[in-house]
Amino acid sequence: MWLVFDKEILHDEDRLEDYDIQADSTLELVNRPERSRSFGGQIGLKFVDVSNDHALKRIGWSTTAPRWRRTRHGLCLEGLCENEKCEAYNSTVIMPVGYKKIDMLDDSLEKITKCPVCKEYVTPITCAFNNCWWKYDGVQICKKGPSKQCSGNWRQADDAYHRFKEYQDETVSWKKLTLEAARTRPAEILNIQPTDARTTQTTVRSPAVAVATTPPKNDCSSSGNGETAIERFAQPDKRWCPWKSDSCSISLKIKGQGTVEIMQRRSVPFELQLSNKEDACDRNAYSIILSVNQNEVKLSTSNGQSYTSVNNIYTLQPEGQYWHRYWISLFSSTRNVKYGIGEVRPFFSVFNIELPENELQLIKEIHYLHFKVNNNNQMLKELNNLKEDFRISIGTDPVLHEPALFVIPQEKYTLKDATCHTAISEMKLERPLRDLYYSVINLELNTDDFPDLTDVIERSIKNPEGWCYKKLKEKAERFGTPNPKATYLRLTAGERKGNAPGHNYVIEVWPPGHYSPIHNHSNAYAIIRVLSGEILVKLYPALTLNVNQYKPIEQICHEGRVTWMSPNLNQTHQLKHLDLIGKPCITIQCYMYAKDDRAHYEYFDYLSNDENSIETTFTVPSLLDGHEYDFRVMAINENGTSEPLRSTAPTTAKLPFKPPGAPGQPDTTGMTNNTVTLNWDKPTSDTMPINTFYTENEAGKGTPSDATTSTKVKDPNASTNAPEFVKK
């Protein structure tokens, strides 16, 4: 029996939303009829050559594609709808298959290969894959000679539409062909050959065929937190609120390991307890206790071990506008426990402790997290006002190694990169980072049209008359105390799209020895690629006034290197061109907010040049002429950050003065054979002091005056009588 809706068979692994089934929809239960497929008398199947890697193209998702171009994760078939009454007539339609293994010559395939609009049969001519591992196996019928066995190893398709381009006159005949798509990486994979994800161009198609596809509907392996190939770097991702759950305790997903992150906006002491007992007050429990207050931070166990720091950069941070992050990581296999502040990574650990070997079994039994604020056992009722000032996140992975800073193509990713964490594959980046990476990885500065661009930029920096030189001089006081070295040029590319803090693409020019302030970029995703030269990257745990008391992570990025930034990692940083006398360094940076970012914080937070404050004067760059802007200012000292003070009204970016009015009508008061002396009255409206007047109409210099009356120019010393002739 089949369950059918709108002439389409419903498959067990699919969901109701995949078929647009509503509350009042009618489903039918029908007998399976005996159907047969016809191949028009031909032996075999005419289908795209899936053994031809050159025909495989990576196509990005679209939000405007027609409804017959909708996909699902896994395998999709495509064919031409020939139903003249159908909306998709003469268009290539997508027929989602999903995570399955199918025989392309099996008669039962007819149940799948139907137009998603009219439900009529469509002959498949090509296929595509997304968010899956896939392979094929088949036998091609050769025009000359015996049939040829063709098969491919498992390959990975990322979150894009990897499609075989069909050439109608070059399709091949298949005697046998099976296609298979798997949700996760199959266990039998030995040699991974990834899809060439760098090919971002779409294929050239006939006008009757839509090339764009809409993204798959929600799926268990979508490109969010469930994307199995993505590297998460042990970042906690499960949000827990004691007040909303009406409990100060929660169980860990995996016994003996995990990471807990506490983000705090108000400076209130707290205690976190990892225990093997569900009751936080059980005296027989084995516990690891983290206690943080203004005076000290203490990490201890119920068996008597204790580790304490009174350094104020590790204790409870001053209250202010910003959130402060504290975290603890546990890994029972190595008896390791870490406490850190700021970004969740080993380098920013305050304590990195190996617990006694005789406690291994007790550590493995830790299964509960207990939380307490201000040493108050009645916090759920008495401190309910704090529930919006704490954000607690829990993750299953312990913090073990530093995230790799450099991104490399999948085909260059080696076992050494994976085990030593020297680089991360492009395929392991989160989707926003992958999209940004693909958009700039092939960018070149010196092209055939402009082969010496970098040399031109260098000369412009050194020449006092050059645009770069003048702009750097203008920016010398931008970041607080005047310091010419604390300047660099930001050249925006494209238009603002509203999905990034400012422009999505920014080319930055770093003269020798110049550097940026310590800053962050609004918790956005970012890719930074060095186009020319090299630059030093310094990473800090958080942006605070005492940030320089923390030891930064330092890494030099050479030409061609790509590094990355996510909302939780590599955010607070400083860039510096170390070469003091050589060529400038040029980078491209591209940004994008996370999909779930609803705040879109567009402010550029930075530490001033004196590293003690943010100055009261700041020139805001990269504004758009004629656009309105709101501004806000916050004061910071060692005790915290003030509430922001906003500008009273929006400010429009434009020149502050209008051109002056027209001067009075000129009069001539003197002349020679080649000059005229003019007099006129000042304009009645000059809007600001006038530097000079021009006697010709020049753009931007004001409205020209009326013309004078006609004046004959002559030598004032010349005789007015006719010349006399003297007889000789």
Automatic annotation (TrEMBL):
<feature type="region of interest" description="Disordered">
    <location>
        <begin position="198"/>
        <end position="225"/>
    </location>
</feature>
<dbReference type="InterPro" id="IPR042447">
    <property type="entry name" value="Anosmin-1"/>
</dbReference>
<dbReference type="InterPro" id="IPR003961">
    <property type="entry name" value="FN3_dom"/>
</dbReference>
<dbReference type="InterPro" id="IPR036116">
    <property type="entry name" value="FN3_sf"/>
</dbReference>
<feature type="compositionally biased region" description="Polar residues">
    <location>
        <begin position="685"/>
        <end position="695"/>
    </location>
</feature>
<feature type="compositionally biased region" description="Polar residues">
    <location>
        <begin position="705"/>
        <end position="722"/>
    </location>
</feature>
<dbReference type="InterPro" id="IPR011051">
    <property type="entry name" value="RmlC_Cupin_sf"/>
</dbReference>
<feature type="compositionally biased region" description="Polar residues">
    <location>
        <begin position="640"/>
        <end position="651"/>
    </location>
</feature>
<protein>
    <recommendedName>
        <fullName>Cysteine dioxygenase</fullName>
    </recommendedName>
</protein>
<feature type="compositionally biased region" description="Polar residues">
    <location>
        <begin position="215"/>
        <end position="225"/>
    </location>
</feature>
<feature type="region of interest" description="Disordered">
    <location>
        <begin position="640"/>
        <end position="728"/>
    </location>
</feature>
<feature type="compositionally biased region" description="Polar residues">
    <location>
        <begin position="666"/>
        <end position="678"/>
    </location>
</feature>
<dbReference type="InterPro" id="IPR014710">
    <property type="entry name" value="RmlC-like_jellyroll"/>
</dbReference>
